[in-house]
Amino acid sequence: NQSINRMANHYRLLIRNASQLVVIQRSAARFKRCSEMNEVEIIENGSMIIGDDGNIVAVGTTDELKEIISDGIFFDELDATGKTIIPGLCDAHTHAVWSGDRVEEFAMKLAGATYMDIHKMGGGIGFTVRHTRESTEKELLELFLKRLELMGRNGTTLVETKSGYGLEFDTELKMLKVIHNATNKSKVDIVSTYLGAHSIPKDSTVKKATLDIVENQIPRLQKLKESGEISPEFIDVFCEKGVFEADDTRKILQAGKEAGFAINFHGDELHYTGAAELGAELDAVAISHLEWVSDKGISAMAEKDVIAVLLPTTAYILRIEPPPARKLIDNGVPVALGSDFNPNAHCLSMPFVMNLACVTMKMTLNEALNAATINAAASMNRSSTHGSLEVGKCGDFLVLNAPRWEHLVYQLVNPPIECVYKNGILID
After folding, report:
1. Which domains does the chain have, with CATH numbers?
2. What CA–CA distance (Å, rounded) separates 302 from 284?
3. Where's the Amidohydrolase-related domain (predicted)?
């Protein structure tokens, strides 16, 4: 059932004889939910062909593809005997542009300090904001590209990342320019998010900060996006008690939506704020965290197809109750995973995130894989091109030196990633 142009017999790459070719799905579905999240499509003794444009031309068993293989001319070939091929991993939530580490805070957390305790002492976001404001665009770009390189080595080929360590227009713009400029320098695909409402600036108020974002920052960023200087697709708000609460969050997200940004925001992390209900009302693409999501919020998200981006690293680092993954999945909410890489949760490894999801949130291995591929891609509006090995999608995949894909999660700390391919080209 392959759609193949027999005249076009030159191809970029042939992968053959994989012990497992984990295609995830063959349905072209945008995401998976409920019991679908526990289903993974696997082809044994699988082969895959990547076209000259870097997209997948054919997938199937080696025997099913023998005719196109025999007729084809391939720039490169990969014998995957005894190995496993899986899609490139998708990291649905990161804060990867910043300077100034917060290693001192780790000891404070171990001693019992909460996130908000550290925040009130001038640490946390405020500490990173000061350092990020002082850093040049060039310095931030170098840091960001190095982090992307490390993410790629850990199997991530698509990542969402945010501004948010500026809290005033010039630094937010600097961060968004860094993200924009990295897209042509990094081998990892990047989705950009504007997070001007990450915290309340020092010597300001919620009312003033909200007004500045709605009346000043969003209109100016909209014009810069239209001129091609930056490329944020999403707007984000840290919807939290004592920060931007529900009414302020609504104003900011609504203004962003009217300016053409899709909605993907922090909600119900440290306290219940009604974020899930608000996100469903505003047709958000995704909501992150959700440790304190309500039953009503879960129902609203399921009804409106809002994706839950769960971040087990956050609960692990802060030693708080993890988000209710089982309840979300069992009640029809599509669940995705993100590393939440930031100075507070310094994690660049999606395999480790998947392990945490299984151990701390009681997700199955199959659910974790779907959450880190097709559903994570969907949370970034990229599931038509990423997240599964289907014909027409990007030829992004990992080669695992293992006969089964589960070794990616099972082999904690040192997953058997032999190499990573982006658009059919070896990158690591």
Report:
1. 9-87+389-426 (2.30.40.10), 89-380 (3.20.20.140)
2. 12
3. 84-424
